[in-house]
Amino acid sequence: MTLVPFNDRDGWIWLDGDFVPWREANTHVLSHALHYGSSVFEGERSYGGRIFKLTEHTERLHRSAAILDFEIPWSVEQVNDACRQTCEKMGLEDCYVRPVAFRGPEQVSVTAFGTRTRLAIAVWEWPSYFDPEIKRRGIRLDWAKWRRPDPRTAPSEAKAAGLYMICTLSKMDAERRGYADAMMLDWRGFVAEATGANVFFVRDGELHTPPVDAILNGITRQTVIAMAEAKGVTVHVRDIAPAELASFSECFLTGTAAEVTPVSEIGEYRFTPADLTLSLMDDYERLVRAA
Question: What residues are annotated to the active site?
């Protein structure tokens, strides 16, 4: 399949309050965000014309910007409306939604005083993040060599572009080795997350998942915990050592792009997607498509 470059597509992008033709939605090469990573974003999905948990995503976008010490000059309600309008303008009901806020080119220096905050929203068709034929059987993950940083050294609570550099490196390395993704440890050596999704394990009908002190508290992660608890499933949020993976029977990832994706392998450890994983996978699918 030939990849159509994202800068050379038909359509419209919401940029700083107006719709501009897709190919003209540009920023200068000296934008602060490009040089110093001062950018935050969200990944959202629209199902049947409804963006799932839109307000929660937009609120997190604002929180992420505040953590990076800049303010988005559009309210949560205004950003929500712009996301919906962009989907309508593009004529898409089932799609991926990407709001991104970033500092502009007014200042090229480590300091960012004087820069203007810009906001763009783009939407596009989005198939399954992982191969649908493989997904239900479980995807294979390698171990990443990079670790999630100590929250005292990086703003891990923000969905910030700069924090994804090691994710890109880890996922590309895993893909070169024939894996779908990579599992990252935190700075202490405990299991953290995949490159763009949170992780859950199953033992004796109960869920185990890492705490969010060094990783993003994913909105899909929060949704799945609530779904599991509503089913009467006990959820343990705790540190998980890599050696413990031998004691778990099932494993799955959660995220806006990944949704609920079973895992069959992490390095030397093997899992079999079974009742709990597959039921949560199906429950999530029904939830996001509920009217």
Answer: 159
